[in-house]
Amino acid sequence: MSEAVIVGGGIGGLATAVALSRRGWDVEVLERAPRIEAVGAGLSLWPNALRALDAIGVGAEVRSRASEEGSAGIRDERGRILSRTDIAAIRDRYGLPIMLHRADLLEILRAAVPESAVRTGISVTGVDEEGVVTHSEGESKGDLIVGADGIHSVVRRAVCGDITPVYAGYTAWRMVVTPSEPIGDLGETWGRGERFGFAALPDGRVYCFATANLPAGTESGGLAELRRRFGDWHAPIPALLAAADPASVLKHDIYELPPLPTYVRGTVALLGDAAHAMTPNLGQGACQALEDAVILARVADERGDLTHYDRERRPRSQMITARSRRIGTVAQLSSRPVVALRNASLRLVPPSAQVRALATVLDWTC
Protein backbone atom coordinates (compact mmCIF):
# COMPACT_ATOMS: atom_id res chain seq x y z
CA MET A 1 0.00 0.00 0.00
CA SER A 2 1.29 3.47 -0.91
CA GLU A 3 1.73 5.92 1.95
CA ALA A 4 1.30 9.70 2.05
CA VAL A 5 2.28 12.18 4.73
CA ILE A 6 0.18 15.33 4.58
CA VAL A 7 1.44 18.36 6.47
CA GLY A 8 -1.52 20.53 7.43
CA GLY A 9 -5.03 19.64 8.51
CA GLY A 10 -6.99 22.44 6.87
CA ILE A 11 -9.37 22.17 3.92
CA GLY A 12 -6.71 21.26 1.36
CA GLY A 13 -4.89 18.79 3.59
CA LEU A 14 -8.02 16.97 4.72
CA ALA A 15 -9.46 16.88 1.19
CA THR A 16 -6.21 15.33 -0.04
CA ALA A 17 -6.38 12.77 2.76
CA VAL A 18 -9.93 11.87 1.73
CA ALA A 19 -9.02 11.65 -1.95
CA LEU A 20 -5.98 9.44 -1.36
CA SER A 21 -7.57 7.20 1.25
CA ARG A 22 -10.46 6.48 -1.09
CA ARG A 23 -7.89 5.37 -3.66
CA GLY A 24 -6.49 2.89 -1.14
CA TRP A 25 -3.58 4.94 0.20
CA ASP A 26 -2.46 4.91 3.80
CA VAL A 27 -2.49 8.56 4.89
CA GLU A 28 -1.02 10.42 7.84
CA VAL A 29 -2.06 14.03 8.49
CA LEU A 30 0.25 16.11 10.67
CA GLU A 31 -1.42 19.20 12.12
CA ARG A 32 0.40 21.75 14.27
CA ALA A 33 -2.70 22.87 16.21
CA PRO A 34 -3.75 20.82 19.24
CA ARG A 35 -7.07 20.09 17.56
CA ILE A 36 -8.64 20.56 14.16
CA GLU A 37 -11.15 23.35 14.41
CA ALA A 38 -12.43 26.11 12.18
CA VAL A 39 -10.70 29.44 12.29
CA GLY A 40 -12.80 31.71 10.16
CA ALA A 41 -16.40 32.36 9.37
CA GLY A 42 -18.43 31.91 6.21
CA LEU A 43 -17.12 30.23 3.09
CA SER A 44 -18.40 30.32 -0.47
CA LEU A 45 -17.79 27.33 -2.71
CA TRP A 46 -18.19 27.81 -6.44
CA PRO A 47 -19.31 25.04 -8.84
CA ASN A 48 -15.73 24.06 -9.68
CA ALA A 49 -15.14 23.30 -5.98
CA LEU A 50 -18.40 21.37 -5.77
CA ARG A 51 -17.24 19.14 -8.63
CA ALA A 52 -14.05 18.47 -6.68
CA LEU A 53 -16.05 17.59 -3.57
CA ASP A 54 -18.26 15.28 -5.65
CA ALA A 55 -15.11 13.57 -6.95
CA ILE A 56 -14.01 12.67 -3.42
CA GLY A 57 -17.49 11.58 -2.38
CA VAL A 58 -18.61 14.34 0.01
CA GLY A 59 -20.37 16.79 -2.30
CA ALA A 60 -23.91 15.77 -1.35
CA GLU A 61 -23.24 16.12 2.37
CA VAL A 62 -21.64 19.53 1.89
CA ARG A 63 -24.64 20.73 -0.11
CA SER A 64 -27.00 19.50 2.61
CA ARG A 65 -25.35 21.89 5.10
CA ALA A 66 -25.19 24.90 2.78
CA SER A 67 -27.42 27.38 1.02
CA GLU A 68 -27.21 28.65 -2.53
CA GLU A 69 -25.59 32.05 -2.79
CA GLY A 70 -27.25 34.45 -5.19
CA SER A 71 -25.35 37.73 -5.03
CA ALA A 72 -27.23 40.85 -6.07
CA GLY A 73 -24.04 42.40 -7.41
CA ILE A 74 -22.01 45.46 -6.45
CA ARG A 75 -23.31 48.73 -4.97
CA ASP A 76 -21.78 51.99 -3.85
CA GLU A 77 -21.93 53.28 -0.26
CA ARG A 78 -25.37 54.82 -0.83
CA GLY A 79 -26.76 51.57 -2.17
CA ARG A 80 -26.82 52.49 -5.84
CA ILE A 81 -26.25 49.55 -8.20
CA LEU A 82 -22.88 49.52 -9.92
CA SER A 83 -23.00 46.01 -11.33
CA ARG A 84 -25.95 43.64 -11.31
CA THR A 85 -25.42 39.87 -11.33
CA ASP A 86 -27.44 37.74 -13.75
CA ILE A 87 -28.25 34.97 -11.29
CA ALA A 88 -30.39 32.98 -13.74
CA ALA A 89 -27.66 32.93 -16.40
CA ILE A 90 -25.01 31.86 -13.89
CA ARG A 91 -27.25 29.09 -12.58
CA ASP A 92 -28.01 27.85 -16.09
CA ARG A 93 -24.40 27.84 -17.29
CA TYR A 94 -22.38 26.93 -14.19
CA GLY A 95 -24.67 26.35 -11.23
CA LEU A 96 -24.78 28.70 -8.27
CA PRO A 97 -22.12 28.83 -5.58
CA ILE A 98 -23.09 27.73 -2.10
CA MET A 99 -22.42 29.35 1.26
CA LEU A 100 -21.67 27.49 4.48
CA HIS A 101 -19.67 27.91 7.63
CA ARG A 102 -16.04 26.85 7.32
CA ALA A 103 -16.48 24.71 10.44
CA ASP A 104 -19.09 22.57 8.68
CA LEU A 105 -16.82 21.82 5.72
CA LEU A 106 -13.92 20.92 8.00
CA GLU A 107 -16.17 18.66 10.05
CA ILE A 108 -17.37 16.80 6.94
CA LEU A 109 -13.83 16.35 5.59
CA ARG A 110 -12.47 15.28 8.98
CA ALA A 111 -15.19 12.66 9.37
CA ALA A 112 -14.26 11.18 5.97
CA VAL A 113 -10.64 10.58 7.03
CA PRO A 114 -9.77 7.50 9.12
CA GLU A 115 -9.68 8.55 12.78
CA SER A 116 -6.17 7.21 13.35
CA ALA A 117 -4.79 9.10 10.33
CA VAL A 118 -4.84 12.56 11.92
CA ARG A 119 -2.15 13.53 14.42
CA THR A 120 -2.53 16.92 16.07
CA GLY A 121 -0.05 18.97 18.06
CA ILE A 122 2.76 18.02 15.65
CA SER A 123 5.18 20.74 14.52
CA VAL A 124 7.00 19.93 11.29
CA THR A 125 10.54 21.27 11.13
CA GLY A 126 11.88 19.88 7.88
CA VAL A 127 11.20 17.82 4.79
CA ASP A 128 13.46 16.19 2.23
CA GLU A 129 12.55 15.21 -1.29
CA GLU A 130 13.16 11.54 -0.54
CA GLY A 131 10.00 11.36 1.57
CA VAL A 132 11.17 12.01 5.15
CA VAL A 133 9.34 14.55 7.32
CA THR A 134 11.05 15.66 10.52
CA HIS A 135 8.76 16.86 13.28
CA SER A 136 8.36 17.35 17.01
CA GLU A 137 7.56 13.66 17.56
CA GLY A 138 10.34 12.25 15.40
CA GLU A 139 10.03 11.37 11.71
CA SER A 140 7.38 10.26 9.25
CA LYS A 141 8.06 8.68 5.87
CA GLY A 142 5.90 8.38 2.81
CA ASP A 143 5.84 7.72 -0.91
CA LEU A 144 4.24 11.15 -1.22
CA ILE A 145 4.74 14.24 0.97
CA VAL A 146 2.06 16.91 0.68
CA GLY A 147 2.63 20.49 1.80
CA ALA A 148 -0.80 21.78 2.78
CA ASP A 149 0.58 23.93 5.58
CA GLY A 150 -0.50 27.36 4.47
CA ILE A 151 1.10 30.57 3.29
CA HIS A 152 4.01 30.25 5.73
CA SER A 153 4.65 26.65 4.66
CA VAL A 154 7.64 24.76 6.04
CA VAL A 155 7.30 22.16 3.29
CA ARG A 156 7.61 24.83 0.59
CA ARG A 157 11.26 25.40 1.53
CA ALA A 158 12.02 21.84 0.39
CA VAL A 159 10.42 22.54 -2.98
CA CYS A 160 11.57 26.04 -3.93
CA GLY A 161 13.47 27.60 -1.02
CA ASP A 162 12.44 30.64 0.99
CA ILE A 163 9.59 32.59 -0.58
CA THR A 164 8.35 35.78 1.07
CA PRO A 165 4.58 36.44 0.97
CA VAL A 166 3.58 39.84 -0.45
CA TYR A 167 1.22 42.21 1.36
CA ALA A 168 -1.74 43.13 -0.86
CA GLY A 169 -2.11 46.59 0.70
CA TYR A 170 -5.32 46.03 2.63
CA THR A 171 -6.63 44.24 5.67
CA ALA A 172 -9.85 42.27 6.10
CA TRP A 173 -12.36 41.71 8.89
CA ARG A 174 -14.76 38.75 9.02
CA MET A 175 -17.63 37.90 11.32
CA VAL A 176 -20.89 35.97 11.55
CA VAL A 177 -23.92 37.95 12.65
CA THR A 178 -27.43 36.96 13.74
CA PRO A 179 -29.61 39.79 12.41
CA SER A 180 -32.87 40.80 14.02
CA GLU A 181 -34.62 40.50 10.64
CA PRO A 182 -33.92 38.31 7.59
CA ILE A 183 -31.54 39.81 5.05
CA GLY A 184 -32.79 39.68 1.48
CA ASP A 185 -30.32 41.40 -0.83
CA LEU A 186 -26.79 39.99 -0.77
CA GLY A 187 -23.63 41.25 -2.36
CA GLU A 188 -20.73 43.66 -2.03
CA THR A 189 -20.48 47.40 -1.56
CA TRP A 190 -17.44 49.24 -2.88
CA GLY A 191 -16.36 52.56 -1.46
CA ARG A 192 -13.07 54.43 -1.63
CA GLY A 193 -10.38 52.04 -0.41
CA GLU A 194 -13.02 50.13 1.56
CA ARG A 195 -15.52 47.35 0.92
CA PHE A 196 -18.28 45.58 2.83
CA GLY A 197 -19.97 42.34 1.81
CA PHE A 198 -22.54 40.00 3.29
CA ALA A 199 -24.11 36.64 2.47
CA ALA A 200 -26.69 34.44 4.20
CA LEU A 201 -25.74 31.20 5.92
CA PRO A 202 -28.23 28.30 5.99
CA ASP A 203 -29.21 28.79 9.64
CA GLY A 204 -30.35 32.41 9.31
CA ARG A 205 -27.04 33.93 10.31
CA VAL A 206 -25.17 36.25 7.96
CA TYR A 207 -21.50 36.13 7.07
CA CYS A 208 -20.00 39.61 6.79
CA PHE A 209 -16.62 40.76 5.58
CA ALA A 210 -14.97 44.15 5.18
CA THR A 211 -11.69 45.48 3.79
CA ALA A 212 -9.73 48.71 4.10
CA ASN A 213 -6.46 50.02 2.75
CA LEU A 214 -4.06 50.05 5.71
CA PRO A 215 -0.34 49.54 6.28
CA ALA A 216 0.53 45.97 7.23
CA GLY A 217 0.36 45.35 10.96
CA THR A 218 -1.93 48.29 11.74
CA GLU A 219 -3.70 47.79 15.06
CA SER A 220 -7.46 47.48 14.72
CA GLY A 221 -10.23 48.89 16.85
CA GLY A 222 -12.29 45.80 16.09
CA LEU A 223 -16.04 46.23 15.85
CA ALA A 224 -15.86 49.86 16.95
CA GLU A 225 -13.65 50.62 13.95
CA LEU A 226 -16.00 48.78 11.59
CA ARG A 227 -18.94 50.80 12.90
CA ARG A 228 -16.95 54.01 12.43
CA ARG A 229 -15.96 53.10 8.88
CA PHE A 230 -19.20 51.55 7.63
CA GLY A 231 -21.94 52.65 10.04
CA ASP A 232 -23.36 55.25 7.65
CA TRP A 233 -23.35 53.02 4.55
CA HIS A 234 -26.59 51.79 3.03
CA ALA A 235 -28.96 49.34 4.75
CA PRO A 236 -28.65 46.66 6.02
CA ILE A 237 -24.95 47.30 6.80
CA PRO A 238 -25.58 49.47 9.89
CA ALA A 239 -28.05 46.90 11.25
CA LEU A 240 -25.60 44.04 10.69
CA LEU A 241 -22.88 45.93 12.54
CA ALA A 242 -25.29 46.79 15.34
CA ALA A 243 -26.10 43.08 15.76
CA ALA A 244 -22.48 41.93 15.73
CA ASP A 245 -20.65 40.55 18.74
CA PRO A 246 -17.25 42.25 19.25
CA ALA A 247 -15.72 38.89 20.19
CA SER A 248 -16.69 37.40 16.81
CA VAL A 249 -14.69 39.85 14.69
CA LEU A 250 -11.58 38.39 13.04
CA LYS A 251 -8.96 40.61 11.41
CA HIS A 252 -6.22 39.52 9.04
CA ASP A 253 -3.89 41.44 6.78
CA ILE A 254 -4.18 40.08 3.24
CA TYR A 255 -1.07 38.47 1.78
CA GLU A 256 -0.45 36.44 -1.34
CA LEU A 257 2.42 34.42 -2.76
CA PRO A 258 4.41 35.46 -5.80
CA PRO A 259 4.26 32.88 -8.62
CA LEU A 260 6.30 29.83 -7.64
CA PRO A 261 8.59 28.23 -10.27
CA THR A 262 7.27 24.77 -9.41
CA TYR A 263 4.83 23.03 -7.05
CA VAL A 264 6.81 19.78 -6.85
CA ARG A 265 10.24 18.39 -6.15
CA GLY A 266 10.86 14.66 -6.05
CA THR A 267 8.15 13.09 -3.90
CA VAL A 268 7.04 16.44 -2.41
CA ALA A 269 4.06 18.43 -3.70
CA LEU A 270 2.50 21.70 -2.57
CA LEU A 271 -1.17 22.62 -2.64
CA GLY A 272 -3.56 25.28 -1.42
CA ASP A 273 -2.09 28.35 0.23
CA ALA A 274 1.32 26.69 0.45
CA ALA A 275 1.43 26.77 -3.35
CA HIS A 276 -0.70 29.73 -4.41
CA ALA A 277 -2.03 31.80 -1.51
CA MET A 278 -4.28 34.38 -3.15
CA THR A 279 -6.38 37.38 -2.24
CA PRO A 280 -10.04 36.56 -1.50
CA ASN A 281 -11.54 38.69 -4.27
CA LEU A 282 -12.71 35.78 -6.44
CA GLY A 283 -13.73 33.51 -3.57
CA GLN A 284 -11.43 30.85 -5.01
CA GLY A 285 -8.87 30.15 -2.26
CA ALA A 286 -10.56 27.07 -0.82
CA CYS A 287 -11.93 26.14 -4.25
CA GLN A 288 -8.45 25.92 -5.73
CA ALA A 289 -7.20 23.87 -2.78
CA LEU A 290 -10.02 21.37 -3.41
CA GLU A 291 -9.12 21.17 -7.10
CA ASP A 292 -5.49 20.61 -6.11
CA ALA A 293 -6.46 17.74 -3.82
CA VAL A 294 -8.38 15.87 -6.51
CA ILE A 295 -5.71 16.28 -9.20
CA LEU A 296 -2.79 15.48 -6.89
CA ALA A 297 -4.46 12.27 -5.70
CA ARG A 298 -5.16 11.19 -9.27
CA VAL A 299 -1.67 11.95 -10.53
CA ALA A 300 0.08 10.35 -7.53
CA ASP A 301 -2.06 7.21 -7.76
CA GLU A 302 -2.24 6.74 -11.53
CA ARG A 303 1.00 8.22 -12.85
CA GLY A 304 3.42 8.65 -9.95
CA ASP A 305 5.37 11.42 -11.68
CA LEU A 306 4.35 14.59 -9.83
CA THR A 307 5.47 16.86 -12.65
CA HIS A 308 2.12 16.09 -14.27
CA TYR A 309 0.42 17.64 -11.23
CA ASP A 310 2.61 20.73 -11.55
CA ARG A 311 1.85 21.12 -15.25
CA GLU A 312 -1.89 20.76 -14.67
CA ARG A 313 -2.29 22.89 -11.56
CA ARG A 314 0.32 25.64 -11.61
CA PRO A 315 -0.79 27.56 -14.73
CA ARG A 316 -4.45 27.49 -13.71
CA SER A 317 -4.01 28.42 -10.05
CA GLN A 318 -1.53 31.18 -10.88
CA MET A 319 -3.91 32.59 -13.50
CA ILE A 320 -6.67 32.74 -10.90
CA THR A 321 -4.31 34.27 -8.34
CA ALA A 322 -3.39 37.05 -10.79
CA ARG A 323 -7.02 37.65 -11.70
CA SER A 324 -8.01 37.91 -8.05
CA ARG A 325 -5.20 40.40 -7.49
CA ARG A 326 -6.42 42.60 -10.36
CA ILE A 327 -9.97 42.61 -9.01
CA GLY A 328 -8.67 43.63 -5.59
CA THR A 329 -6.64 46.46 -7.11
CA VAL A 330 -9.74 47.88 -8.78
CA ALA A 331 -12.00 47.30 -5.79
CA GLN A 332 -9.61 49.02 -3.38
CA LEU A 333 -9.09 52.20 -5.43
CA SER A 334 -9.28 55.22 -3.14
CA SER A 335 -8.80 58.38 -5.23
CA ARG A 336 -12.16 60.12 -5.52
CA PRO A 337 -11.96 60.88 -9.27
CA VAL A 338 -10.57 57.44 -10.09
CA VAL A 339 -13.32 55.76 -8.03
CA ALA A 340 -15.93 57.84 -9.87
CA LEU A 341 -14.49 56.61 -13.18
CA ARG A 342 -14.41 53.01 -11.92
CA ASN A 343 -18.03 53.19 -10.83
CA ALA A 344 -19.14 54.68 -14.13
CA SER A 345 -17.28 51.95 -16.01
CA LEU A 346 -18.86 49.18 -13.93
CA ARG A 347 -22.32 50.46 -14.81
CA LEU A 348 -21.51 50.04 -18.51
CA VAL A 349 -20.55 46.35 -18.29
CA PRO A 350 -23.54 44.16 -19.30
CA PRO A 351 -24.38 41.24 -17.00
CA SER A 352 -23.86 38.85 -19.91
CA ALA A 353 -20.20 39.88 -20.11
CA GLN A 354 -19.75 39.08 -16.43
CA VAL A 355 -21.22 35.61 -16.96
CA ARG A 356 -18.87 34.91 -19.86
CA ALA A 357 -15.87 36.17 -17.89
CA LEU A 358 -16.43 33.50 -15.26
CA ALA A 359 -15.89 30.69 -17.75
CA THR A 360 -12.13 30.34 -17.31
CA VAL A 361 -12.62 29.97 -13.56
CA LEU A 362 -15.76 27.87 -13.31
CA ASP A 363 -15.60 25.63 -16.41
CA TRP A 364 -13.29 23.18 -14.66
CA THR A 365 -13.87 19.45 -14.51
CA CYS A 366 -11.95 16.65 -12.82
UniProtKB/TrEMBL annotation:
Question: What positions does the domain FAD-binding occupy?
Answer: 3-160, 262-323
Which Gene3D superfamilies does the record match to this protein?
FAD/NAD(P)-binding domain
Query: Which Pfam families does this one have?
Result: FAD_binding_3 (PF01494)
The record ties this protein, via SUPFAM superfamilies, to: FAD/NAD(P)-binding domain (SSF51905)
Keywords (alphabetical) are: Monooxygenase, Oxidoreductase
**Has keyword Oxidoreductase?**
yes
InterPro entries (UniProt xref): FAD-bd, FAD-dep_Monooxygenase_BioMet, FAD/NAD-bd_sf
The name this protein carries in UniProt is: FAD-dependent oxidoreductase
